Amino acid sequence: MDKNVVVFGGSGFLGSHVCDKLMESGYNVTVFDKNESKFIKGKHNIVIGDILSEEKVGKAVENANIVFITVGTPSRRIEDEADLSAIWDVSHELAKNIKNYCVIVTKSTVPVGTTKKIKKIIETKISSENFGVVSNPEFLREGSAINDFMRPDRVVIGTESKKSEKLMRDLYRPLNLIETPIVSTTIETSEVIKYASNSFLATKIGFINQVADLCEAVGANVQDVAKGMGIDKRIGAKFLHAGPGFGGSCFPKDVKAFAATAKKFNINFSILDAVKSSNEKRPQMIVKKILDTKKFDSNSSIALLGLSFKPNTDDIRDSTSLKIASILQENNIKVNCYDPVAMVNAQQHNKTLNFFDSVYDACEGVNAIIIGTEWNEFRALNFTKIKEKIKDAIIFDLRNIYRPSELEELGFLYYGIGK
Ligand code: UDX
User: Fold this and answer.
1) Is the dihedral of CA 47, 117, 203, 259 positive or negative?
2) Alpha-carbon gap, residue 319 to 352, rounded angstroms
3) pTM reported for the whole predicted model
4) Left (φ > 0), alpha (ψ -120 to 50) or beta: where does 400 sit?
5) Nearest residue CA, atom 15 of ligand 1?
6) Which helix (H) or strand (E) holds 137?
7) 205 ligand 1 Cβ < 6 A
8) 246 lines ligand 1 (CB under 6 A)
9) What is the pLDDT of residues 83-137, one digit of tens each?
10) Residue 341 in 3-state DSSP?
11) How many CB atoms lie within 10 A of CB 14?
């Protein structure tokens, strides 16, 4: 059997990992994308530029057994719903070009009903005998995508067509070796699984963050609370790290979109509204806590270490560090920044911050340090050296990577989260 796959949106973070994996499994991969990307250079049969490049799309789709849609679904500016315009563009292209049976797979995170709508669009031109649609969401995390891809906790296949399900199960056959559970379900259920999973994880973080606030008020320690809770297998220890709030390209967007879906169907999903609103308020709250120490005035400067939304990525989308930086600036505090890899992106985002090439340069003459992202590089800092450089030995450890006692012994005033 031919093993030809087309990936629309294959030069993005998700798409490029899908492409790599397919190549490894022996598929011929053709990528269509509007943007070139650092992820795929030289690796696939790539057609960058207008995806409506008729002739090439036509040929590739005609020969494809499987078509993956991995295009972005950003939040719309005004409503919280996901913007699906890229998905509809691809669907119209497919409607024009499918000749032999193929499966259309949505990997992008799409609201419930989207995969069926894709089917409807294609059916206006192609008989439903000639194609199948599948929802097959991806659960990759940035920074650990390869591991997540090779050893997923589960694979979800949502389809109503036996033929499509078989093609998908063949695709995932290599995972049988590591006994990865495959959940076969309807299309709608699969779409809900993705949003419910991300929203649940975001809720877990939102929950522990508010437990942290309570711990501060009553003199408890949130890290010990999380440990004590997490040992219970029904709760689980993961995603119980209190911090400055969740960021990134998925959780904030997916919580909003899931809440928007609930609203559209008149479902009271108030938990999601609470998670969204508490997370949005968190950077402001953290800055208030910093200012309430009464240690700063309009001549103060603070070193902010870590700008990406989490370690091991240069992604600054919805980065809580950068939100905190802007709020500090609004309060007339100068911000010196350092990040191992996200400086270029951060500079484009906010040129008015001061950027430095090392932690130690950023700390020169400042009145406090904030650890905003838990990069490994920040886990064993030379605080004796830092102390020689900074003006006031104050540290706000927003990721709880240090024990208060170890820094207090060195003469620092230490503030963590929830302890
Ligand atoms: C997430 C999901 O984990 C992944 O399954 C999905 O496919 C895409 O969205 P990602 O956005 O890469 O992945 O990052 P993740 O590691 O989940 O962290 C998201 C945010 O939550 C980060 O800002 C992180 O700092 C924060 N977080 C995470 C916490 O504050 N506490 C935690 O315990 C875990």
Assistant:
1) positive
2) 16
3) 0.94
4) left
5) 141
6) none
7) yes
8) yes
9) 899 999 999 999 999 999 999 999 988 999 999 999 999 999 999 999 999 999 9
10) coil
11) 24
Query: If you search the block for the tokens 């990759």, which residue do you land on?
Result: 140
Structure tokens at 393: 């030995």
Asked if 205 contacts 239 with a C-beta cutoff of 8 angstroms, the reply is yes
The token pair that represents 229 in the structure block: 């809770």
Residue 164 Cα to ligand 1 middle (Å): 31
Q: Give the pair of three-digit tokens for residue 118.
A: 């894709």
* Pairing outcome for strands 182-185 and 301-305: unpaired
pLDDT in tens, 349-371: 999 999 999 999 999 999 999 99
∠ CA 112-116-117, rounded to 5°: 95
The pair of structure tokens assigned to 136 is 């097959």
Does an H or E element contain 151, and which? none
Which amino acid is located at 218 in the chain? V
Q: Is the CB of 396 under 6 A from ligand 1?
A: no
**Nearest CA-CA partner of 184 in 139, 135, 150:** 135
Which tokens is 41 given?
A: 């250079």
The single-letter code of the amino acid at 36 is E
Ligand 1 centre to CA of 239 (Å) is: 8
Among 14, 146, 151, 205, which residue has the most ligand 1 atoms within 8 Å of its CB, making it the best to mutate? 205
Is residue 250 annotated as part of the catalytic site, yes or no? yes
Structure tokens belonging to residue 299: 């001549």
At 358, give phi and psi (nearest 5°). Answer: -150, 165
Q: Are 86 and 69 in contact (CB under 8 A)?
A: no
Which residue carries 């559209």 as its tokens? 264
What the block records as the tokens of 375 is 């990069």
Strand ranges across the sheet with 102-106: 45-48, 28-33, 4-8, 66-69, 102-106, 131-135, 155-159, 182-185
Q: 3-state secondary structure string, 22-85? A: HHHCCCEEEEEECCCCCCCCCCCEEEECCCCCHHHHHHHHHHCCEEEECCCCCECCCCCCECCH
CA 283–ligand 1 middle distance (angstroms):
17
Low-confidence stretches of the chain (pLDDT < 70) are: 1-2, 36-53, 77-79
Read off the DSSP letter of residue 353.
S
Residue showing tokens 């003199």:
219
- The β-bridge partners of 45 are 30
